[in-house]
Amino acid sequence: MRKIKFECFFFLMICMLSTACDFFSCHKKEKETEPEYNANELWRIKLGDIQHVNSVIEDNYFYTFNGETEDVNERRFKVLKINLKNPSDIIVSQEFQGTESTHLLIVEEKLIFFTQSSQIIILNKNDLSVIKKQYIGYPRIYDKVCEYKGNLYWANFREYSENENGERIYARKNIIRANLQEIIDFTGNIFPIEYLCDEFNGERVVSLYIENGVLYFLTFNRDWWKENDEKSYLIAWDLDLNKKIWVNEISKEMFLSEGDFKIAEGKIYLIGNYGRYCYDMITGKKEWSRVQNDEDRFKEIIIHTADLSKDMLFYDEKIYFTNEESFMSGKASGHPKENYKNILCISAKDGSYVWGDMIHFGISNFIVPCEYNNKIYFSTEKGLRVYEAQKGKLIGVDKEYNCSGQDPMYKYNDILLFFVNQYDHIDLVAMKAE
């Protein structure tokens, strides 16, 4: 028994030593070979210690959240309105308890978001005064709220129970609709909401968009490994007629993880776990698809998005995105480590691999890059990285910016905005793109 324990301990130590050697070797190689980039910083604003992923730009203003942690059970946040032409001009809302849960949505003169305590908060866009705080249905954390003709639409955080046969009995439906003005006028405790699209019983809706009166959404069933698995679907729903336009089933072989889809130039681009495809927005016809099985992943670059990926960049008929792979991914899966990339560019024409890069420490799933002057900017935990858009040549890395890796970059004319981790707080940084 002692011999077995010693051999197990010895094997574990060898694995840990091998991993450490790989890490320091990769780190040293990066440091020696990567060109430097010197960002032209314009200004920065000190924020709190809670990272947010839900900011928005409209006109000349940047709206974002500023959160503070009092203790583990006590979080507070405010909304900031920053004048991008004069960044010292900042309007601050009152303080709210908890953390925000959805992206900021601007509807006319109103700024709208949900909190994790199931409140919808509606602010005056101009001075950030509170118009309404109302308890309502459960939005999915970090998801979008959309608006069409005065109605709000969002994805439900699906709840279910099981009957005596182990079958799921769903307590809620997929899509929620609520009239904005009725929410403002409501005087009761919990606002009554309306459910839509109940014929699609995926466990949850992971993405939704509205364009030209059509609601596009993706359902996802987490228990894809079960033989009696429910299906996942990509759906187009006419909001005026309140009926389905088209639906495409997403098989578990092609879409095994949560992800996002990108709408651009009349197409819907869907990238999941080892499967990616493109649909026509109007007809729902599949334009192309690519699936990587286990054998493929030994021979070619492995392409997938991260769980809960927030968005992708579409530029010049290419799609840019990130995932959470690292230098350890090959060791964990057995696939060649050179097949893993966590910065990726694919062709929007056919889904083929164009270029990619591997940051050995790994990066976040919330990173969304920006483009300016045929350059692609990524704000990562390993610095601000700048690539040539077409071929992926690394122009340089500014390692002075230990970016949070938890928020998209934002572009305003020739100014790029991103968040930098200062350990005890977060800085919002503006740089001039070149």
Helix and strand arrangement:
Blueprint: H1 2-33, E1 40-46, E2 56-58, E3 61-71, E4 74-83, E5 90-92, E6 96-97, E7 105-107, E8 110-114, E9 119-124, E10 130-135, E11 145-148, E12 151-155, E13 160-162, E14 168-170, E15 175-179, H2 180-185, E16 194-196, E17 204-211, E18 214-220, E19 232-238, E20 243-250, E21 260-264, E22 267-271, E23 275-280, E24 286-291, H3 294-297, E25 313-315, E26 318-322, H4 329-333, E27 343-347, E28 353-357, E29 370-372, E30 375-380, E31 383-388, E32 394-398, E33 410-412, E34 415-421, E35 426-432
Antiparallel strand pairs: 1-35, 2-3, 3-4, 4-5, 4-6, 7-8, 8-9, 9-10, 11-12, 12-15, 13-14, 15-16, 17-18, 18-19, 19-20, 21-22, 22-23, 23-24, 25-26, 26-27, 27-28, 29-30, 30-31, 31-32, 33-34, 34-35
